[in-house]
Amino acid sequence: MKKMSLLAVLTLLALTVGTFGFAGADPAQPQGPTTVPVRPSNPLSFVNPGEPFTTVGRNVNITRKAGAQSETTIAVDPTNPNHVLAASNDLAATATIYESTDAGRTWVDAGLGLGSTFCYDPWLDFNAAGDAFFAYECSDQRIAYRQVGQVSWTKTRLSNAGSFPDRDMVVVDTGSGSPFFNSVYIGYDDAGANNAAYLLYSRDGFGNWVRTPKINDTSSTIGVNAAVASDGTVYAVWEDFNGRKIWADRSTDGGLTWSTDHVVTNYRLNTGQFFISIPPQPDRGIVPMAFSDVAPAGTAFAGRLYVTYTDKDPTTADTNVYVRYSTDGGATWSGETMVNDDTVHAYQFHPAISVAPNGTVGVSFYDTRDDQPLNHKTNQYSSFSTDGGVTWSANTKVTTGQSDESGAGDPNDYGDYQGLDAAPTSFFFQVWTDSRQPGTRNEDMVAARWRP
Asked: Which CATH architecture has domain 6-450?
């Protein structure tokens, strides 16, 4: 691993001020850059606007709270498309899970109950039986699960995750023909060990967690995103911020051993500065991490690995959302395809991706095309592909009101990601950070569903 430059050290010091020492936090300090949200020791005094905005169309306000909710995730129960879980960071409190049993029309607190411990980086998934899994961090790595029929969540701190796990996610092997069926994988980097890439795995998600060998061969990492093919092959993709690349690797034995890293793409963005300031997200900046999914068995492009990411436009300063795919297990990759179809050089960022059971690929993202020339306000847009990621549909605006994180307010802006998941009926459920309340610094987690 390369030593950190003086600039990287100074950047780290600036980014981590005020982010450690919360109740329940591990005192370990990271050696490399992290995406831990900045939470002031005295949280901002947010304006409570009273009643939330009126739901318009298919936009549903999930959290309906004062304060800042960002970095959103969503998962649809494969046994029941009406059963949906969503979660977000809450900088005035802690990560919280919400639950809907009527296809996202109404939501209630799902009873995770983290108390006063400040936890963040939420991510959700279900197994094939409908058991729910929630990965999160509290300056350490944790996992919670709730089996079908249970009311409460079982929460576990994973002490073998390393000294400072960061930017985690969770994915479950739901392939009925997989030799590792029901295995649960948590992807993350260890910022206390030069941002090394790891997965943790459990063959049922309920215990006996094992850490894989270090996955990355040479690069520094952030955003280790895992995806599982129907045959049990596990993929890991990550951003190499120092090397300005996205890499991918795979394991065919359930995470025990790993192959050779392959380059997915070379960034035009200067990822060496880690957080990259753009007009709609100027305070925190974006980390243009990769997100991935695999086409399921029985579809036209079964086994195809898709990766989406943010990068600079080849000729202008704005950013776009791109997709590449691999048909040979991540060894070689298609050319990049731009998903956004605007013609005004707007900023698109924080893409999420999910593949439906019928093979349709959905992508969602924040977009400033409706706020020209300032590029401050965003809407959520989506697009889909039915030909294996070769071509993409005309973009659809999902939000019914714009958000603005470009001014004073939550220093984390929209955070580092937003969520998308495909239902067994091939609907897509989308969830994002929404601050359309005028004249306030209030942010809510808002969701909508759409069908191609």
From this structure: 6 Propeller (2.120)
